[in-house]
Amino acid sequence: MIIKDNKNRLLIFFFYDRDGVVDEYIPYMLEDMKKNVSEIMVVCNGKLNDEGRAKFEKFTENILVRENKGFDVWAYKTAMEQYGWEKLDNYDEILLMNFTLMGPVYPFKEMFDDMDKKDLDFWGITQFYKTDFDPFGTMEEGYLPDHIQSHFIAIRKSLIATPEFHSYWDDMPMITGYIDSISRHEAKFTKHFGDMGYKWAVYADAEDYKELSHQPAVGMAKKMVAEKRCPIFKRRSFM
Among 85, 193, 203, 238, which one is most buried in terms of CB atoms within 10 A? Predict the structure, then answer.
């Protein structure tokens, strides 16, 4: 599916902070992102202080603060349940994005304009490259497959409005920990739908870096920005 002009895009933005504090990099990022979407929903696990809520209200009135349960996976699931499939199926694209990104270094419009020209069912910004082993011991395959990193996944109508996509979320089990979120969603999503024949790609293609790092977005952050024109970098790069 190729996205045309007058795109109807929904951004579901996941946020978490132990104290409910929204740091300034988030409104900076959303300010640029809002130029490319028609609607924003913020879903927050746990606390959101008054100042943080005021920052989000500059972009949307649709703010859901929920129990800190199920990590980002169940935050997205809860947000989609609030909309319902009848409404969600009408969006050209749904973006699932979280607070672990920083940027943009380059306008997001560059990325959207480029990806709009590609015949895809879903896409992302960066990719985790396949390992020959399973570091968590939780993957059915016995390894971590190639997958779009879940800090940003865009899903197009050609996948959104399908029984396969609906059942993926309707049947999602409770996520009880970080490793659980990887094995049940992040490392699963791309292969699950790719194996069904749905087409995917990433914007910042780092195939030539994969022998150096399984996740160049973290391991080679500077090169990704400078050489791949990746518009974002990870907070984790500073940790």
Answer: 203
Length reported for the chain: 239
Is the four-CA dihedral 156, 153, 146, 166 of positive or negative sign? Answer: negative
Sign for the pseudo-dihedral over CA of 33, 35, 37, 38: positive
- Residue 41's H or E segment, with its range, is strand 39-45
Whether the full predicted model's pTM is greater than 0.85, yes or no, is: yes
Q: Contact 218/237 with Cβ under 8 angstroms?
A: yes
Give the span between the Cα atoms of 89 and 84, in whole angstroms: 9
Between CA 209 and CA 25 the distance in angstroms is 28
Q: How far is CA 35 from CA 63, 153, 170, 174, 218, in A?
A: 19, 18, 31, 34, 26
Phi/psi at 13 (5° precision): -105, 120
The residue among 79, 97, 182 whose CA lies nearest residue 140 is 182
pLDDT in tens, 115-149: 999 999 999 999 999 999 888 888 889 989 999 99
